[in-house]
Write a structure and sequence with these properties.
The chain has 18 helices and 13 strands. Strands 3-2-1-4-5-6-7 form a seven-stranded parallel beta sheet, with helices on both faces. Strands 10-9-8-11-12-13 form a six-stranded parallel beta sheet, with helices on both faces. 47% of the residues are buried.
Length: 393
């Protein structure tokens, strides 16, 4: 079987982006049984590095886009949600047709709801199957933004949400096979869009080989050290980081030794200004695990966004106890079996102080966190799902 993998940015196993890692693992798995080609967008500096790496591999092709091309499509396609229009491209459509013809593609494996806009290709090739992976439910993210917005922004988000609900419903219903990355999104898609036959894949993070078999040295943990991970260019991560700064000020009064590391690329100037002798804004780092391994706690005061959170999974796999919200725990541990749940800034401050003052509880949670990830997030489960859907040649 010849499969074409399409995505909004480059898939790769060696990136800190959860979606990119998961896409890379899907391709690696499917190539055990089938011939897999890749057509993607190059939308960032990191994408360009991957583009250069794969330029001599005939199985990879890509289309460059930038903020101006994205803005052009947003302006000229008002019927599309802006989030989806940013990945509209006539050049991509042309390459899609060309690749299907050249390699006799039988199945398209699309990643993210935005790739659902290319389902029209089935009109040209009626025998072609088009499978879609919902990395998170886009509508849920906008529903949360709507609750927190006011004035003109509220009107804008409501307008975008209506379009997302319409388009995402169409894409979810028309896909031949629909995958989600957690059971929570499967339930939401059934309730919101009326499709209950989704297949669930685990979000691959290299956990089995890279982390879970790693000997974590508990002696490296530094008392009163907190870590927050996130791509700071994302509004929900910026918002959570700013919340953590405010929470840290409360904790510092009772725990003078407190040190907070906010780790992730593209921090805003507003966030950088919060840096001081105990708030450290690192920007991009080569290895986030170094910070997790030193941290006493990983804290994520998230109240926006949707889908499963790589940073939470990775922290738990490193044996770093996690305090987060229901938003951060979604699809991972919503019952608080190993995650400590908090919602208000006061609850976060109390939880942090309690963890700092109970070393025995911390040690117990560290072990349980790793066990929980090992038991619930194995890629072997996903491999069986992919084999069931695609079979073996």
């Amino acid at each position: 079987m010849n499969i074409l993998h399409i995505s909004p940015y480059f898939p790769a196993l060696d990136t800190n982006h959860a979606g990119g890692v998961c896409m890379g693992k899907e391709i690696e798995t499917l190539r055990k049984w089938h011939q897999v080609y890749v057509l993607t967008f190059s939308a960032s500096e990191f994408d360009e590095k991957l583009r250069a790496r794969y330029q001599d591999d005939d199985r990879y092709d890509s289309v460059r886009i930038n903020r101006w091309t994205r803005l052009f499509h947003v302006v000229t396609e008002p019927w599309m949600p802006n989030y989806f229009a940013a990945r509209s491209s006539l050049r991509f459509a042309w390459k899609l047709i060309k690749t299907i013809k050249k390699y006799n593609i039988q199945v398209i494996h699309g990643e993210y709801a935005s790739m659902g806009q290319y389902l029209w290709i089935k009109k040209l090739y009626p025998s072609l199957k088009f499978n879609l992976v919902e990395h998170d439910m886009t509508a849920q993210s906008y529903q949360r933004k709507l609750k927190d917005s006011r004035g003109f922004r509220h009107v804008y988000v409501a307008w975008q949400l209506r379009r997302i609900l319409k388009k995402e419903r169409i894409y979810c219903r028309k896909a031949d096979c629909l995958f989600t990355l957690n059971r929570k999104d499967k339930r939401l898609i059934r309730e919101q869009y009326g499709r209950g036959d989704c297949q669930v894949l685990n979000l691959f993070l290299g956990l089995e080989d890279e982390i879970l078999e790693k000997n974590i040295d508990s002696q490296k943990r530094q008392y009163a050290n907190i870590c927050f991970l996130g791509q700071m260019g994302r509004p929900e991560n910026h918002r959570a980081a700013m919340r953590l700064v405010a929470i840290a000020k409360q904790v510092k009064k009772q725990i003078p030794e407190l040190q907070v590391y906010i780790v992730g690329n593209r921090p805003s100037e507003e966030l950088k200004k919060q840096g001081n002798d105990y708030i450290h804004i690192t920007g991009f780092v080569d290895d986030v695990d170094e910070y997790l391994e030193r941290a006493w706690l990983a804290v994520f005061p998230l109240d926006q966004g949707a889908g499963i959170k790589m940073k939470v999974l990775r922290s738990l796999a490193m044996g770093t106890p996690v305090i987060t919200t229901m938003v951060g725990a979604e699809g991972i541990d919503e019952d608080g079996e190993v995650i400590s749940l908090a919602e208000t800034d006061g609850e976060f401050a109390e939880g942090i102080i309690m963890h700092f003052r109970d070393a025995e509880m911390m040690e117990e949670k560290a072990g349980k966190s790793r066990e929980y990830i090992r038991d619930h997030f194995s890629w072997e489960i996903s491999e069986r799902v992919l084999e069931e859907v695609y079979g073996k040649d």
